[in-house]
Amino acid sequence: MGSLAKVQVVEDCFGVLKLYNDGSIYRARESEIDFKKYQIDNDNILGDGCRVEWEDCIYDETHRLYLRVYRPWSTSNNVKDGNKMPILYYIHGGGFCLGSRTWPNCHNYCLCLSSQLQVVVIAPDYRLAPEHRLPAAIEDGLKAVKWLQLLAKSKDDEKLSSKLLKNGVDFTKVYIIGDSSGGNIAHHLAVQLGPGSPQLAPVKICGYVLLGPFFGGSSRTESEAYGPPEPALDLDSLDRFWRLSLPVGQNRDHPSANPFGPTSPSLETTRLDPILVVAGGKEIMRDRIKDYATKLEYLGKDITYVQFEGQYHGFHSHNYSSNVSSQLFTLIKSFIFSTKPSY
């Protein structure tokens, strides 16, 4: 009598996502994930007298994808035309496999961004791998900003799907922040949309902020091969995310992973909006991130690279009230309010 083959886990992402040898997938519900460190506490995050309103809107009916809009309460009403707020997209990280706008670490950071910078923040979800491999997430990033274009073109407020974007916002001052895999998506948007994002008119994207952007390559950098392991992210984890997110049979030099891979489009003649690139001095991808910024600077792009010494990958969202987080908020604020568009 034959025996049934045992179903075994072949890929495990921190217990939150598991891929089995029969092709089935387990994805933990948000209620099953330990978020003790990131419990939502608006009073402690925003401080006395601060308040941020937020709402969820669907931007892709086909795939049931939502985004979350955040707005400082003090600017919700009676905003004069001359004092309209910029709009900041925040694209979450998670190796293209994990994360959501609803996860407390993402939600809390967006509350802080909106409050500290006094801007509207839009945090979109995107399809996750391995159920939806790249370039699905990049395609969704583009759909999320095109949703804003539809709102900007609308002449009838009643048809707007976001009550927080009805007035007092500047559709010509839009910035995109990408965290980790979100930084990868932000890079691809910068390349696709070009300076001033003419295909999104009347929306204009003025710049990009890449926080520890998740890039890959078949050759190891020094920090990947010899750097000390991070508390929650090592080389095995990086490789696992790429195995699960890249098209089947492709390696880390695929254009979705490596901006300078052998089959990636040349960036030499590509015009880009200003880009701020941020890395932690102790993060495993530090050398790859720095190399990305260095190459773009060599090609004549408007690139600013800032390295926070002693910090690991994702340091900005681990402790919102730390000195280093305050420094990063100041850096991002300066970039947003002083950047001159390149179009």
Molecular structure report:
This protein has 343 residues and is of the alpha/beta class. It contains 8 helices and 11 strands. The strands form 2 sheets. It has an 8-stranded mixed sheet with strand order 4-5-7-6-8-9-10-11, sandwiched between helices. A 3-stranded antiparallel sheet has the order 1-2-3, covered by helices on one side. Helix 2 links the parallel strand 6 and strand 7. Helix 3 packs across helix 4. The longest helix has 18 residues. The chain is globular, with a radius of gyration of 20 Å. It starts with 8 loop residues before the first strand and ends in a 5-residue tail after the last helix. The model has no long low-confidence stretch (mean pLDDT 90).
Key terms:
343 residues, alpha/beta, AB_hydrolase_3, single chain, AB_hydrolase_fold, 8-stranded mixed β-sheet, 8 helices, 28% helix, 21% strand
Topology:
Layout: E1 9-13, E2 17-20, E3 25-27, H1 42-46, E4 52-60, E5 65-72, E6 85-91, H2 104-117, E7 120-124, H3 136-153, E8 169-179, H4 181-193, E9 205-211, H5 222-226, H6 235-245, E10 275-280, H7 286-298, E11 303-308, H8 323-338
Helix pairs in contact: 3-4
Number of helices: 8
| CA-atom Rg in angstroms | 20 Å
Helix content: 25-40%
Query: What is the chains' assembly state?
Result: single chain
Q: Which term fits the overall shape?
A: globular
- Spatial ordering of strands, largest sheet: 4-5-7-6-8-9-10-11
Largest pleated sheet = 8 strands, mixed
Instruction: Pick out the low-confidence regions.
Output: none
In short:
By secondary structure, the chain is α/β, with parallel strands linked by helices. Helix content is 28%, strand content 21%. The protein contains eight helices and eleven strands.
